Amino acid sequence: MNQRRLFFIAIVLIGSIFSCEEEKKENEEIAKDSFRGEVAATPVRTAKAEQRSFDYLINATGKIDAVDQVKVVIQRQGVLSELLVKEGDVVEKGAVLARLDDSEAKFKLERAQIQLKNAQANFDSEILSFGSIMSSEDEDRKSSIQDQIKAKSGFFAAEIDLKEAQMDIEKSVVKAPTSGRVADLKIKKGSLVSNGEEFMEIINLGALELKVKVLESDINYISIGQKAEVYPVSGSTEPFAGSVRSINPKVDENGLVQVSILVNSGKGLLPGMNARAIIRAPQNNSIVVPKQALVYRSSRAVVFTIENNESKWNYVEVGKDNGKEVEILSGIEANSTVITTNNLQLAHQAPVQIVKE
Which Pfam families match (predicted)? Predict the structure, then answer.
């Protein structure tokens, strides 16, 4: 009798325990659903993860330089008697820039002309002694005799002196070696100048280039003719179009490579200006999302997508970043709807509401 009573009491207790557990579980589910229903949906904006060409942007800074920039050098010693240009003047190739006093050069020319006449007279006198040979048909013999007499009479030396005197006269006139603008004028009128002294520079402002330094890790993304945008530091908001003109095949001690970008239209730009270049390097067949869609949790890249009006946490592998968009190598599929706002503190499976623009 006592055993039956104990058994009955045990059955009642077990039933009560299971009943309490079921009730507790049911209450927890109701509380969870009730809590989820009470949490307001987070308003978010979204974008599509697109599979397309991705423009990797390479940023670099440098200085504007002229492609055609020539230094004008004085070619003989003398006094600068005339200066016909000033800085900023536009000159054409071959235009006279300045003149040196040529009075001494003219005197040397006259003397050289007289010496040549004397040498010619000596030659004519000496050649008479070889009348029979000069009247023969042996051209080689005749030429040999003439050269010997010219050398003996001083005719060859007089010819060279005359050419040197003529060159000194020509060097007295300084001409523009190329078309462009006058810059860095270093000598004033009346100055005594020497051979090889730098006079000025002629700069062609119609052909400008920007020389920048690019990281060696990025150089494989750059090729000749590649498009670029040039932004002068002076404050112009509109970029100048450009293209890669040359790539120095050498890495410097800082791990940088010099790249020259030809500026297609440099109106308003001047050599020496600081400027920034953006070189576009298209990457094909990439999944691309706006940069705002990418957040980091515990140092790992995360992109939130939307499923059934709830956020979904996706760990992703990030590729290149161009400042506006990010290349996603893995973690989400193309055409996924990604969250771009209010995602910094967003949780997994949090209710969200898409806000239309």
Answer: Beta-barrel_RND_2 (PF25954), BSH_RND (PF25917), YknX_C (PF25989)
